[in-house]
Structures are given as C-alpha cells and as structure tokens.
Write a structure and sequence with these properties.
This protein has 8 helices and 11 strands. The chain is an alpha/beta fold and 257 residues long.
C-alpha cells in the first residue's frame, strides 16, 4: 500500500468482525457500509450486495482513492464501516488507515471473503470470489468456477460465455440443468476445435521448415474464430489451461520465422 507507518505487526489494528456476525448484520438490515478494498478486476467477478467499489486498479492507490472517496461520500463513513478483501490481509492495512483518516467506526472482516464462505451460507455475497492461483475464482461453496478463465495475454479474469448473474448463481448452487450442461459441452467442443486448428498449423509449419521455406500463415491470435471465444479486454483467445501451452508454443514459432 506504500504507507510504511501502517504496520500490522507493530500498530494496533481495527477490530475484527466475525463472518457469522456480519451474516447477522446483513440479515437484520443493520445500517452500515461494506467497503471492498480489492482491485476492480477482482470485484468484477463478485462482491457483497451493495458493497462500495472505489474502482481501484491497484491496492497501492488505496490511500489516495480512499481519501477522495471519503470526501465525496461522507455519509457512507458516518456509520459503521466493514472493510473486506479476499483473505483479510489487505484490510490489516486498509482498516487502520481509515481510522487514521478520521473514520470513527471501522471493522475488518475476519478472514475475508473466503472465511465468510467457510463459516456461513454465503448469503449476501453475489457471484464468485477472485483468487490468486490457477483456480481463478471460487463460488460460495469454495468450488472453482467452471465459467471463468484467466486470459493468457492480459491476465484478466474472463467469462467463457456471457452469464447473467442470477443464472450463474443458480448454476453453482445446485446441480447443473440439462441446458447448462449442453452449453458447457458446446464450449468445450469449441476449445477442442481451436486446439485441432493450432495443431494442424504446427504440422504444416514443420513440413514447410523441412523444405527450407517459411510459413506465411496468419498467427494463431489472428485466426478467424467465434468472437465469443475472445478476451473482451485484449481480443486474445479465451483458452483453457490445456490449450494454453500449445498456443504459446505456436505463437513463439511463428514469431521466430
């Protein structure tokens, strides 16, 4: 966060709010502010209903953005504020800083979103929680999402197919319906076809190289494919982990020609 004076190991932190207690606050209709301290690309996959999103592009900007946000929306910080993040680590710095900025009643969700999923039924949280590993996102049952992948080029989390929030919740809180299963199988089939095309290009390339010629084929990231398979942020392929290695290898070979 870039504020050295805020050190959780040395300074007193803001009080913790247990996940079960937050669940009670939400159920009772208590008036308070939920402040999401995560980055915008994390929040895009899911957050608590009515949580404040300050549009952070990086946590390092939290001090400047929070200061401006408090000035612009003082009414949100004149009541209890519950800060939260994925696992509670960022709030160890964010919550004390809010106190330093003059916000009088600040809590940090103990254990973050993931602990909330573990200790409660997850009610009040909408959609998925971004995680910093190859799973990319988890639902409220702590199971990896089947509809989200990481773009291998821009590293943004993206949905394989556009899914309305309510449909996504239903799909991940009960057994998939026959229609949803067909959609998943169709997506898988598209990925397989894409993989086949890449492998065909690699075979052709090897033949041309053996003949001492260079291929002038369009690189894989320029191939004409279904636009629903492209990343909305950089237009690269939305690929599965299994096909990522082959695509990367093929791109490198084309670039070296």
């Amino acid at each position: 966060m870039g504020v050295d004076r805020i050190n959780p190991a040395q300074n007193a932190s803001a009080p913790y709010l247990a996940p079960k207690e937050l669940r009670e606050w939400l159920a009772s209709g208590k008036e308070f502010t939920l402040l999401d301290t995560r980055n915008d690309y994390e929040i895009r996959l899911g957050t608590f209903k009515n949580a404040v999103d300050m549009q952070l592009d990086t946590f390092r900007n939290f001090p400047q953005i929070a200061s401006k946000y408090i000035q612009a929306h003082p009414e949100l910080f004149q009541r209890p504020v519950v800060s939260f993040c994925t696992g509670g680590i960022r709030c160890e710095k964010a919550a004390p800083l809010l106190l330093e900025m003059g916000v009088k009643d600040v809590y940090q969700l103990e254990g973050g979103i993931l602990q909330y999923f573990m200790d409660t039924d997850g009610e009040g949280y909408e959609n998925d929680c971004y995680v910093f590993d190859r799973r990319v996102s988890l639902n409220r049952h702590l199971k990896p999402s089947t509809s989200v992948r990481m773009c291998f080029q821009c590293r943004q989390p993206v949905h394989l197919t556009p899914t309305p929030p309510q449909q996504q919740v239903e799909a991940e809180t009960k057994d998939a319906t026959e229609n949803q299963q067909q959609q998943f199988e169709g997506q898988h089939e598209k990925e397989q076809q894409q993989q086949i095309e890449v492998e065909k290009n690699e075979v052709k390339e090897r033949k041309l190289q053996a003949e001492g010629r260079r291929s002038r084929q369009v690189p894989p990231n320029k191939m004409e494919i279904d636009s629903s398979l492209q990343c909305p942020f950089c237009s690269a392929f939305k690929v599965s982990a299994s096909s990522f290695a082959s695509l990367s290898s093929s791109v490198r070979k084309q670039s070296s020609l």
